Amino acid sequence: MTKKPNIEVYGTDQICASCVNAPSSKDTYEWLEAAISRKYKDQPFSISYIDIEKPLQDAKQQDYAERILEDEFFYPLVLVEGEVVGEGYIQLKPVYRELEKHGFTASE
Questions:
Q1: How many C-beta neighbours within 10 Å does residue 15 have?
Q2: What's the pTM?
Q3: Mean pLDDT over the full length of the chain
């Protein structure tokens, strides 16, 4: 593995109306961070939470925020190295699969 993968979680404080019984975006971010750290011990990654209702300086992040607000995507929206791996109700397997494409291996 040459560089640590970047994970982005887009969302807002308000729970997605279409995602009944799903955790909040912030809860999803914290849950993903903990789950990835447990499964892939000592394998560095960066994870960031992007609030789609706050002003964003990064053009790519602003584009995703606008697309979510225009209902192109549900939130939370999760990207690994720019690849969409989940939206709305997030599942771990697609996230893990994408991380493994970037050289991650599960800890014993």
A1: 17
A2: 0.91
A3: 91
CA distances (Å), origin 57, targets 5, 60, 93, 101, 105: 21, 9, 31, 29, 34
Between CA 61 and CA 10 the distance in angstroms is 9
pLDDT tens per residue, range 4-37: 999 999 999 877 666 667 788 999 999 999 999 9
List of residues 6+ apart from 104 with CB closer than 8 A? 1, 5, 40, 43, 45, 96
